[in-house]
Write a structure and sequence with these properties.
- This protein is of the alpha/beta class.
- It has one domain: Aldolase class I (TIM Barrel, Alpha-Beta Barrel), CATH 3.20.20.70.
- Helix content is 32%, strand content 21%.
- The protein has 7 helices and 10 strands.
- It has an 8-stranded parallel beta barrel with strand order 1-2-3-4-5-6-7-8. A two-stranded antiparallel ribbon has the order 9-10.
- Strand 5, helix 5 and strand 6 form a beta-alpha-beta unit.
């Protein structure tokens, strides 16, 4: 079954929604963003999160010691690198942590994806390229550019309840990553989260 990751959670309400609808992963953004959380905020939110949901920390060109500190404190369960991190950076990080690494790629060419598949990470995240923005833009990309690769990947970029079925059928991703697609006026929207989870899993909205 295709996994679901809700990215950019930053409020107690967001965690309540996640616990209610049970995505496989949620994402805390530690890079510059309107969805950014501090390590202290993330620790408070993680303490409220259901243990069956895995927390992903999203970083952009962060110092390795900053990433490893959050890994070793138990605040996050996976690392997502969404910047220009090189193979050397990932190998150095690997010496400091044991958690899985997701490398995000802002897709421009099939060759870019093939090169990324050779990097020392467990998963890729394929996102839309938007000038000056690392993610969460609501933009999509041409999914036909995705070549056959042996590495599992999350599909991101402009996904919503309306576009998910076709995207999953065409790309067969390991998982779907959604942020702006479950927001209204910049905040996570319970009804949109409900619609996504119902679409993917047949989860009925809780009356609780």
């Amino acid at each position: 079954m295709t996994k679901l990751k809700l990215c950019g959670l930053r409020r107690t309400e967001d965690i309540i929604y996640a616990n209610r609808y049970k995505p496989d992963y949620i994402g805390f953004i530690f890079a510059e963003s309107r969805r950014r959380v501090t390590p202290e905020q993330a620790a408070e939110l993680k303490a409220l999160l259901s243990p069956e949901i895995r927390a992903v920390g999203v970083f952009v060109n962060a110092p390795i010691e900053e990433v490893s500190a959050l890994c070793n404190s138990g605040v996050i369960d996976l690392v997502q690198l969404h910047g220009d991190e090189s193979e050397l950076y990932m190998r150095k990080l690997r010496r400091e942590i044991t958690l899985p690494i997701i490398k995000a790629i802002r897709v421009q060419t099939p060759e870019q994806i093939l090169r990324a598949a050779e990097l020392p990470c467990e998963l890729l995240l394929l996102d839309a390229y938007t000038q000056g923005q690392r993610g969460g833009s609501g933009s999509t990309f041409d999914h036909s550019m995705i070549p056959p690769i042996g590495k599992p990947f999350f599909l991101a970029g402009g996904l919503s309840a309306d576009t998910l079925p076709a995207a999953i059928a065409a790309c067969r991703p390991y998982g779907i990553d959604i942020s702006s697609g479950v927001e209204t006026d910049g905040y996570k929207d319970e009804y949109k989260i409900c619609a996504i989870t119902r679409l993917m899993r047949g989860v009925e909205r809780s009356n609780a």
